[in-house]
């Protein structure tokens, strides 16, 4: 009885100890959450590249973050960005003047270095950027300017913030302060957002509406925006323009969901984008571009308006895709910093595609002497493969006489040469190799005696 009571007390202590351990360590043993600094619309940066009051850009604080179906979206996703009838959401000319001013040379060097370009490329780079307004709370790699250097940090930009995007729809510059932006590389599902330094948690903030943007699969000619003041109005804005060449369209016009079953995720996403529809997914991470689509929700034939999501289901076992970075192969390497890292990929892939074409041509030539030549040399004596470059010339001088003697002497093997082809091949290689140098001369007299 005493022993039973002792065991019960021991079990209770062990249980308490296990609970304590779980409470301290936590049940989730994954990687720790990445700290991300919140950046609210209209709130000045503490260490900007340029004064927030210099008129470089103006945010739209009243924009409410839109729901999203998948936290990682491509830069050409229809409706990902917003626009406005106000043409001065970003003053690119003024930013260019600041960065090319000799008095701001140190800032220009730090700015260009953060984007992976040179100071001489700044004007052309800016000319290819397009001003937009965020419609989602968006994760980026932001940069402060401290002690003459660009200091990177992960941040969450509130919907309504004005930014410049590159020719693949990737955030590149925060308009109001000129801070350079790069892609967010962390796990979008494991972040800890810090609201501090005047950036209070904004109304309507929803963790499920946070997105990160990866470059579009191909360079864009125009970006399809939604007017943040009138969602029924769409804006087709040519890349590299600030609003003067905008063309309006009706976002209420519907498109039928195409049949996508059997296509790859990458193909399905592009087919939807071409119709003005967005690709969604409900898995923890974005499916691989090569993953096969098994079904869509809503199904094919359903009419949807511009920017609405079509949920794609993919075959189980597909590996998660991003990473970029299976980055799509940029075709314009020098246009933007974010695309520069990707340019090495297509070049290397191109070189590898060429190298196989040369290696097969060499490999048959090396393999033919060892294997095929022995099988074909049954009709012509093994002297052809075994003798080096000097032997063929002597053999060709008397080809008809020399074959008969070996075949006559080895007449029995000739008739049975079909079965022993494999057994007869090794002896010529090993036994005939030594003779060519010493007994090649005696073979010729034997041939003449035979005649």
Automatic annotation (TrEMBL):
- Transmembrane domains' residue ranges: none
For the region Disordered, give the residue spans.
315-451
Alphabetic keyword roster: Signal
Domain (PASTA) spans: 253-316
The residue range of the signal peptide is 1-26
Q: Where is the composition biased (Pro residues)?
A: 398-407, 425-437
Low complexity: which segments have biased composition?
Answer: 333-397, 408-424, 438-451
One Pfam family hit: DUF6777
Q: What is this protein called?
A: PASTA domain-containing protein
Organism from which the protein derives: Streptomyces aquilus
